[in-house]
Write a structure and sequence with these properties.
CATH class: Alpha Beta
Number of strands: 9
CATH architecture: Alpha-Beta Complex
CATH topology: Spore Coat Polysaccharide Biosynthesis Protein SpsA, Chain A
Number of domains: 1
Order of helices and strands: EHEHEHEHEEHEHHEEH
Number of helices: 8
Largest sheet: 7 strands, mixed
Structural class: alpha/beta
Strand order of the largest sheet: 3-2-1-4-7-5-8
Length: 227
């Protein structure tokens, strides 16, 4: 079974379409699935939208948090609640078309991680220039301090259960910096990490503040590198 984990904060405008696209795709491809939406302190109608959708599909599971936890903590909750042999992290805005999921699953080997990367030569990317520049600078710094990953912050990661079992107990970061901790732990445990090119289309405004979150992520990298 494939477990899809979707952290969601104020995604009421897009979450229903994302769930529709995912469920239609899985049914068409005859993929057994569960979709775990971890709602992270939304102030819009995200909870109502997911609840309404779950009435039509018992494979949709909602975990509602009244207070903002942070993306990293929301992701950990989703990972902990997942039951599948493969776990797919999938952004609530559905920036990656669902048919790219088959490509990611085909690239999966025993005990590995597949990243749907926006920044490989064959990737097809539609992104705001400011976000692109921030992402490129951040990834350059990551490669200098750690190892070569082109898209650490991709919201599309596929993880084998055995790999996740090694990584999950060691995760601690609650914010957007969780990805770099996740990848470092994987690398430290000799878990294979693959990047494959995907189609990625900008859907909504980024939740990342380049200054506020950039500083926090910079110090998180230093902590991971030198601790």
């Amino acid at each position: 079974m494939l477990s899809v984990v979707i952290p969601a904060h104020n995604e009421g405008k897009l979450i229903t379409q994302t769930l529709t696209n995912l469920t239609n795709f899985f049914k068409k491809e005859r993929i057994k699935y569960e979709i775990i939406v971890v709602e992270d302190g939304s102030t819009d109608d995200t909870v109502m939208q997911v609840n309404n959708f779950s009435k039509q599909d018992k494979n949709i599971i909602l975990f509602h948090n009244k207070k903002r936890l942070g993306k990293g903590k929301a992701v950990r909750i989703g990972f902990q609640k997942s039951k599948g042999d493969l776990i797919l992290l999938y952004d609530a805005d559905g920036s990656m078309p669902v048919n790219e999921i088959k490509k990611m699953m085909s690239a999966m080997d025993t005990e590995s991680i597949v990243i749907g990367s926006r920044y490989l030569t064959k990737s097809k990317l539609t992104e705001k220039k400011s976000r692109f520049i921030f992402s490129r600078m951040f990834n350059m710094l990551f490669r200098l301090l750690f190892f070569d990953i082109k898209d650490t912050q991709s919201g599309y990661k596929l993880i084998n259960r055995s790999a996740l079992n090694k990584i999950l107990p060691k995760l601690s970061f609650d914010g957007f910096e969780w990805d770099i901790e996740f990848l470092k732990i994987a690398n430290d445990n000799n878990i294979a990490i693959k990047e494959i090119p995907i189609v990625w289309i900008h859907r909504n405004d980024s939740r990342v503040n380049p200054i506020k979150h950039g500083i926090k992520m910079f110090f998180a990298m230093l902590k991971l590198r030198f601790s």
